[in-house]
Amino acid sequence: MRKNVAAWVERPLVWGVAGIPYDRRTLLPVPGDELAMVAYGDPAIRWIVATCQVLSLNGRTAVFEDTGFLLPSGGVFGPRRPLPREAVAT
Length: 90
Hints:
Mean pLDDT: 77
Strand order of the largest sheet: 2-1-3
Shape: elongated
């Protein structure tokens, strides 16, 4: 997904959070440079200082810059189809 401009997603699902984990005994941050991802419902979520929410993008279709498709100003056109570039009024 890093090389894409956007993606069409059929079913975005809230999964959990990403953040800094803390040790429950010392109350100090766990050493490391990476954010920990923890699912909702996991008991470890109590010891995370969340910095962002994590979503699961199910049924995604990548949209590349050179595809010739843009979103209309009012949002999505139709249930799953973008408008062709020439149909979008600027």
